[in-house]
Backbone:
DNA sequence: TGACTATATGATTATATACTCACATAATAA
DNA sequence: TTATTATGTGAGTATATAATCATATAGTCA
């Protein structure tokens, strides 16, 4: 049976995972891996309304994935933990496995 | 600007992330890291209705995170890619960073 | 001061997700 | 065959999330 302690941990982990589990937010994280950026540049890169991007950014800040700093009129966002990028290695691994399995299936037809 | 190719990749990645982004599903993945299990045992472990667990399992199968095999009356689920466990290392990293920052904040008060 | 710019947020709507209950399906054993 | 057990799925409801528009806030510069 699941302990209360583990349950709490899983809830925290789910919160972080949810904060990344959106195409736009993944695009943002990918954009930020090369360095910090302001909301305006992020919005232009991902091709969405600034208000929408601002909301997505605050979701990730609340989850602890991003952090920000104000600089004049602009707000600059950056990755808070480099290990977030490991997440993509993991997910890419799943995708590669899927592709491999599809290839096997195709070859068997 | 975001290329169509990258956009497609991010959508796929988000799908996989979403498949894990739930406390119950994280509990399931954690349970399965030590070996394959049937729905009934998974449901008992996580403390939820079998019908509900069955739905969560199928979400993860569709995303390519889990795979299953039938054995008599039972359906046995297992992790499809061991690298899924790396995900937890990543998320735990974020949580550790959060805890560290909280400690700093506390010490500064 | 007022105009301008970047960002955040309230309100609304549309959509997606999770859960429950009831029922369907399928394998097994008597 | 019937009864039993494990699993999956349709339907309904409740809740969460995403996107948009309008508006608020706050820093900058003329």
Residues:
């Amino acid at each position: 049976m699941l302990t209360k302690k583990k349950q709490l941990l899983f809830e925290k982990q789910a919160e972080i995972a949810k904060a990344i589990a959106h195409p736009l937010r993944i695009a943002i994280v990918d954009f930020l891996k090369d360095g910090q950026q302001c909301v305006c540049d992020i919005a232009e890169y991902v091709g969405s309304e600034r208000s929408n991007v601002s909301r997505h950014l605050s979701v990730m800040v609340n989850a602890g994935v991003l952090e920000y700093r104000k600089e004049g009129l602009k707000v600059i966002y950056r990755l808070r933990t480099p290990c977030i990028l490991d997440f993509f290695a993991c997910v890419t691994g799943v995708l590669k496995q899927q592709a491999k399995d599809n290839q096997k299936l195709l070859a068997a037809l």
